[in-house]
Amino acid sequence: MTFRTTSASADYVEDVSPGSGALPPRAWYASSDARSLSLNGSWRFRLSAAADAEDDSFAAEGYDAGDWAEVTVPGHWVLQGHGFPVYTNHLYPFPVDPPRVPTENPTGDHLRVFDLPEDWPDLAEGGALLRFDGVESCARVWLNGTEIGEFKGSRLPHEFAVGGLLKTVGNILAVRVHQWSAGSYLEDQDQWWLPGIFRDVTLLHRPAGSALDFFVHASYDHVTGEGTLRVDSDVDGRVTVPALDIDVATGEPVTVPVEPWSAETPRLYDGELVTPGERVPLRIGFRTVALEDGLIKVNGRAVLFKGVNRHEWHPERGRALDLETMREDVLLMKRHNVNAVRTSHYPPHPAFLELCDEYGLWVIDECDLETHGFVEQDWRDNPVDDDRWTPALLDRAARMVERDKNHPSVVIWSLGNEAGTGRGLTAMAEWIRGRDASRLVHYEGDVDCRDTDVYSRMYAFHEEVERIGRGLDGGTLKRRRLPLILCEYGHAMGNGPGGIADYQRLFEAHERLQGGFIWEWIDHGIKDDRYGYAYGGDFGEELHDGNFVCDGLLFPDRTPSPGLVEFKKVIEPVAISGDGADGTVRIANKQDFADLSALAFTWAFQVDGETIESGSLPVPALAAGESAEVKLPAPPEGVPGGAETQWTVRAVLAEDTAWAPQGHVVAWGRLPVAARALPSVAATEGPVPDGALITLGPASFDARTGALRTIGSVEVTGLRLDVWRAPTDNDEGAPWQSDVRHGELWRKLGLHRMRHRLDAVESGGDALTVRTRVAPAGWEVGLSTVYRWTSDGNRLRLTVSVTPEGDWTVPLPRLGVRFGLSGADAVTWFGGGPGEAYPDTRAASQVGRWRSTVDGMQTPYVRPQENGARADVRWAELGGLRIEGDPEFWFSARRWTNEQLDAARHRTDLVPGGTVWVNLDHGQHGIGSQSCGPGPLPRYYLNAAPAEFSFVFSEVR
Question: Is 947 helix (H, G, I), strand (E, B) or coil?
Fold first, then answer.
């Protein structure tokens, strides 16, 4: 005998079908004159523990929900005090038994009572549609007591015909939403699981004779400069485009001279589709996408994607984004030279694509499909290779394509992400090509490119990318003839990503390499009073992936991280280079389409980091791909001898644009002229014993240990060699990686607990010499370290000599000295800035004179880790000290030790102390992106090797 505890009324939850009752998908648009009513706002809400815990009587008219809670729609109930969010990277947070889901299935009943506006058309005239733009993960809907359907496909639109059910007043809309369903097996994306009605709910009037669906075909012939427009409509009508003098019937093609649309020049023409029942505004961009000569070409030219992967995210509202937040994302992308977006891993809110059309971004539109958790069972029972699920897959493909087909920004359809391989994906690709042959098809998991038009990879190492670029990668014949994009690379988790400049050099060197998309756009931290921002595990989840959800170029509050600033520099559309000493700068236009007429160029001449003269630089309006040598003005006279001098040339917006104001810096280049004179201290004063102290020039030392105590009136504590840094997420690597993960090796060796043995304090002649050995307990490796102090009476010079002992098999995290100061706050330095930099993240570091505070030098990563180092520092002043380097050094200062930083798990764990700890580093290990991708390239390793470096200290009065 078989027993089933779930009631028949909830069987649809585990049904593999996409649902029932919903209308066929169609294009998304806002009508010019057909009425609509937003049903967003406050809804009554009841949470149950199981799908069938409550009956459906709440949907009936007259039901009293006065004691229910309230939630905001769009929204997620777990972010509004009802239950908790769950974060997993790829593991399903429930037992894998498709299509079954747990009995413990949080279910939210939603109620909304609404009246029709007074000017709503007569209910007998035309029809009405109820539209849901996004509900996670399964919903059942009633209107005025009548069930109208149920659906799955969380990030996709669903519409229902409701005209015959509407009343003038007192309409009751009831929606039952289940957190888990059969659809959850298709939505295993790397993100928070957040149930709820998280996108708009809208009532749409559909007048008789209104357009049911339409398809704008707007191609461009780059040879003739003409565009061909044809608008297919389910209801006959006319299409007008006043700026092009177009007035034609639907279905009729017309060819006219046009300006093409591209991400660089997003020319849109306003038009209108007029049917007997309504007028529909059109924004038409003429462009042609093709796979030609083994390359992705738009309007006849190969394009280079400088992209990001974008999940929808807000730190308080989750995936319930408003228009202004979406606009902020697009503006930040444009201002940081990003030209492309992959909508990982689902279609975004449709308004986001309108913004991409308007401002100019290439889009890979990705279907709401991922079954990544099945990798744990070697893809057994994977829905994409099970014919029972194919209707659901095709439904998801159709709802994406039909909704978004009229956006010129969408140039590639993506079948989904990390769903293995199977017949269902092939069916999706075939359906998409049959419906829309004007775009290409992408799917990273199709390694043989059977169903796709692009060879796509994730996190390929630099060496492999170069081999692919040179055509030495092998594979099927079809794959060898296709372009490569890295749909994910440069994992932007915590401090990083490193090595993206090295990727970009490969992209630009090999035609087949058509760029990539950084993973990802924004940290998915949830605003939380306990932690600042919460991540996986902070809500008591039994299964989670920690802070792996915080891997973006933006912090959760949308502040750009150093990684985004670095990316902007790496992908800048104008290359500025040259030898400043010969007075010539080379300007190269790296854009695919636009000339340089929108940019103005400026020069600045700097002496020791300060600009002493500046002006404009005439540069011709070079066409895309062109370059020219431009003469700089004569350098200023009267520059003091020994000063460091340089030119800085900038490309800025010549006028205000839709995305940034006049003067916004698009690109810049530094051209050194004369190097600085290295600091010199004549050893004219020797050490003098003074009881328990030894004095040397302005400094005093402990006579027994040789430890520095003061420099003038400035107290100094704990100066000694330091090799430890709080490992970054990229140092730690990912658990599934089998290759070297440096953070783990550093801890195993004990570099976080180095012991300092005093061997000798030698006071005599013109120097105080302290000999030590720095080594971890339990191992025979060590660093023989000698501190040699000299002075000219006013300044103090420290020369540190380091000799490795034993067999060092791992690189060092850092190599330098650390000491503590009290009372330090304001910081000034001459060197790289204004933000942090590391050996493989220093492209954006500009050499100049910078000012900050100690607190301002910290980079607030969601999970605290090594941060805040400034590169190429010549000198720094803080806490009453001036420090000069020979050679240049890495400089950081913070109100906690590296060990305290390492122990912190959230920002709120960092409690400022009374001491500012300063690191002056001769070297830093590279960053890489091994939190998911490759580690640092070998040339960025800080290998244990003999080293000598010096610092000159003086008191600032």
Answer: strand
How, if at all, do strands 362-366 and 340-342 pair? parallel
- Give dist(CA 439, CA 162) in Å, integer: 34
Tokens read off for 777: 């307990």
Domains of the chain, with CATH numbers? 8-206 (2.60.120.260), 214-288 (2.60.40.10), 291-569 (3.20.20.80), 572-674 (2.60.40.10), 688-955 (2.70.98.10)
Amino acid at 685: E
How high is the pLDDT of residue 641? 86
Do 346 and 367 contact (CB within 8 A), yes or no? yes
Catalytic residue among 150, 278, 488, 572, which?
A: 488
Rounded CA-CA distance 751/812 in Å is 8
Instruction: Report the alpha-carbon distance of residue 436 to residue 289 in Å, rounded.
Output: 11
What letter represents residue 810's amino acid? Answer: V
Parallel/antiparallel/unpaired status of strands 767-776 and 610-616: unpaired
- The pLDDT assigned to 8 comes to 47
Q: Per residue in 220-250, pLDDT tens?
A: 999 999 999 999 999 999 999 999 999 999 9
Distance CA 838, CA 214 (A): 52
Task: Provide the pLDDT for residue 75.
Answer: 98
34 half-sphere exposure, CB direction, 13 A CA radius:
27
**How many residues in the chain?**
957
**Amino acid, res. 614:** S
Neighbours of 804 (CB within 10 A): 16
Q: For residue range 808-825, what is the model confidence (pLDDT) as tens digits?
A: 999 999 999 999 999 899
What is the distance between the alpha carbons of residues 440 and 445, in angstroms, rounded to a whole number?
16
Proportion of the chain above pLDDT 90, given as a percent: 96
Site of tokens 């815990």: 53
List beta partners, residue 798. Answer: 789, 951
Residue 418 annotated among the catalytic residues of the structure: yes
Chain centre to alpha carbon of residue 273: 37
**Does 9 have pLDDT greater than 80?**
no
Predicted pLDDT at 2? 34
Catalytic residue among 136, 418, 466, 520: 418
Locate tokens 């780059």: which residue?
Answer: 222
The answer to whether the Cα torsion of 420, 424, 429, 435 is positive or negative is negative
